Amino acid sequence: MIEKQIIYTYGNEQITPSRLLSLLKQHNINCVVDCRPYSNNTFTDHLKEPLQKENIIYIPFFNHFGYIPSQARTKQGNINYKKAIVQEHFLKGTERIKHGLEKGYTICIIDNQSEINKSKRFLLIGKHFTETHHIIHLFDNGYHLSQEQIELQNIKKAAIRQQKNNEKQSLGRNGEEIAALYLSRNGYQILDRNWNLHHGCELDIVALKNNKLHFIEVKTRTSDKYGEPQLAINRQKIKNIEIAIQLYRSRRKFISINYQIDSIAIIYHSNNDYILKHFLGIRPNGDACDSCQTYIP
Question: What is the value of pTM for the model shown?
Answer without folding.
Answer: 0.72
